[in-house]
TrEMBL record:
Pfam families xrefs: malic
Cellular component, GO annotation: chloroplast
GO function terms (MF aspect): malate dehydrogenase (decarboxylating) (NADP+) activity
Regions crossing the membrane: none
Cross-referenced InterPro entries: Aminoacid_DH-like_N_sf (IPR046346), Malic_N_dom (IPR012301), Malic_N_dom_sf (IPR037062)
Source organism of this protein record: Hibiscus syriacus
Identification of the protein by name: NADP-dependent malic enzyme
Length: 187
């Protein structure tokens, strides 16, 4: 296996020049590659499945599952991102309460950012009101009862995976979205 990844099979030049390439779509590995190019510097096994930046869940190919030690950590079926997207949208549409849809989307973002953004891009009209105004206002108001990880801000900052942070915004939550002081249960 070489460290120089081959380009995905496309009709455009490699590397892409101008425009915006669909980085949230399916990943492509050529026959002479064991894995898709972005996975060369990624952890493997359990660590890879816990990394929302690179986790593809069931969309990992057979070769990727072998090369990243994922056998036994995932169900045996390989499910494309498109099929996962379709199933997730069907599940989200079943929720009657927008806050439930919001919570489902946030759980997805914590597991699989690639699928989260692909779902959002492909379903902007349906999902933007869920992950932004007006639903995010209710999520801010009820944050104390829906958050999944509590406190330890210093540990969060110390362990944050991105090192080139230029700005950190700290707020007391008093004027989020013009909602006023949200109190002890607010975000």
């Amino acid at each position: 296996m070489t460290n120089d990844p081959s380009p995905p099979p496309t009709t455009t030049t490699w590397p892409p020049r101008g425009g915006v390439e669909d980085v949230y779509g399916e990943d492509y590995a050529t026959e002479d590659q064991l894995v898709t190019p972005w996975t060369y510097s990624v952890a493997s096994g359990y660590s890879l499945l816990r990394d929302p930046h690179h986790n593809k869940r069931l969309a990992f190919t057979e070769k990727e599952r072998d090369s990243h030690y994922l056998r036994g950590l995932l169900p045996p079926a390989v499910v494309t991102q498109q099929l996962q997207e379709k199933k997730l949208m069907n599940n989200i549409r079943k929720y009657q309460v927008p806050l439930q849809k919001y919570m489902s989307m946030m759980e997805l973002q914590e597991r699989n950012e690639r699928l989260f953004y692909k779902l959002l891009i492909d379903n902007v009209e349906d999902l933007l009101p869920i992950v932004y105004t007006p639903t995010v206002g209710e999520a801010c108001q009820k944050y104390g009862s829906i958050f999944r990880r509590s406190g330890k801000v210093l540990d969060v900052l110390k362990n944050w995976p991105e090192r080139s942070i230029q700005v950190i915004v700290v707020t007391d939550g008093e004027r989020i979205l013009g909602l006023g002081d949200l109190g002890c249960q607010g975000m």
